[in-house]
Amino acid sequence: MIFEKIKKIISSKTGINKDTITLESAITDDLSLDSIEIFEILSEIEDEFSIEVEEEAYDSIKTVQDLVSYVENALEQA
């Protein structure tokens, strides 16, 4: 469920076909996202899930799986 929502957000913000986005997709390498696109995606994720993505987490989020795990943990702590 979370993965599907994140794929939809990434796809809508970047035009990337959501069927090509996998948990293993590297955000900067495989998806070729720049810092502005990443910021927009994280902002949308914050709105969608009513969470706050801490700036310290930016460097640790390398793959879509990292992003899904971060959201899952944030929701558990909410």
So how many helices? 3
Q: Based on the coordinates given, report the CATH architecture.
A: Orthogonal Bundle
Shape: globular
Kindly report the name of the CATH homologous superfamily: ACP-like
Distance between the termini: 18 Å
- Biggest sheet statistics: none
What does this structure look like?
This protein is mostly helical and 78 residues long. It has one domain (2-77): Non-ribosomal Peptide Synthetase Peptidyl Carrier Protein, Chain A. It has helices at 2-14, 35-49, 64-77. α1 crosses α2 and α1 packs across α3 (64-77). The chain is globular. The model has no long low-confidence stretch (mean pLDDT 96).
List keywords for this structure.
78 residues; mainly alpha; Non-ribosomal Peptide Synthetase Peptidyl Carrier Protein, Chain A; 3 helices; 54% helix; globular
Structure in a nutshell:
The protein has helices at residues 2-14, 35-49, 64-77. It has one domain: Non-ribosomal Peptide Synthetase Peptidyl Carrier Protein, Chain A (Orthogonal Bundle), CATH 1.10.1200.
Topology:
Blueprint lengths: L1 H13 L20 H15 L14 H14 L1
